[in-house]
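Researcher: Good morning. I'm working through a list of sequences from a screen, and I'd like to move beyond sequence-only analysis. For each chain I'm collecting a predicted structure so we can compare shapes side by side. This is the next one on the list. No need for commentary yet; just the structure.
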Amino acid sequence: MKTKLLLSIALSLLIGLGGCHSHQKQSDYCTVKGTVKGLKDGTKLELLDEFQDFKVIATTTVKDGAFEFHPDIAAPTHVYLYSKDEDQLKDFILEPGTILVEVDATDEEDLGTGAKGTPSNDIDHRYIALMDSGDREAANALMDSVLDAEQTGALALDIVSNRCKSSKKGLDALNRLSPDLADLAFVAELRDELTRRMKTEAGGMYIDMEYPDVDGNLISLSSVVDNPANRYVLVDFWATWCDGCVEVLPELVELYAEYHDKGFEIYGMSADTKGRYELWKSSLAENNMTWVNVCDFSGGRKDSKTRQEYALAAYPTTVLIEGQTGVIIARGKTIDELDAMLAELFEE
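Model: Good morning. Structure tokens for this chain:
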């Protein structure tokens, strides 16, 4: 009961947060204070606004291992903190209040730890802690509570853009955005992307594609889906430049070994470039990726055909298809989630 009460209070605060107060200087209400490890004094830092096409909205420098921003904002937004060397350090919600940021530039895992001090960031920090603890159910419930609020704000918009796996839930959240965010071009573009993505989520039909394998032979997805030997086909959108993609390859290899003989096939769709052809080819061999592998040589550009047709927001993305029927039965699942699904499907 206490947890629900605190969450309710926090969400009420989120709904009430608009831009900075008009009768006061905006900088009095929008302050970012931080400490930093691993960067020299004098290093330039920038805040990039995701909702404004990553426009630089504030700059400062490191002094005595600390930094401070006073950005002038009209409405809450999601920002990325970068150093002058274009290294991403953090991301968090920029909103009225004093936002506290601790940066350790020597630790890659520190990148995703968020910030504290204001309602949105405290909720997001709680979500990160729950995910790190392995309590995915509680983390998802917290995320859903933000998306299901009567009026949604910057945190919900960030979740829809970067974490929400359900396009319908995302679109519903966009329809309840606060007025100061609802008319952003970013929102219109995101709405279009989610509408397209719905076509390739569970219950939809797969979209065919045809690309070359390492030997230059064109292999279509339809040829794999229509193969009577394949009961289920997983399309794995990945690339060698995607650290998250590479990290899960051992698990994907285990998944393939477990279910391939039962009728499971993988169509590995790489977004590498022609300049990385040799690296892509060697990665297939070194990682024992013996399934079907093709490459669109797009480099993951947002205007590439595969990204447009499947409305890919990030790599890796998985799409599980039922053989012969072509019906999509899952999208965006982790390897563990796919393992559980396949175990149940092959028992039927």
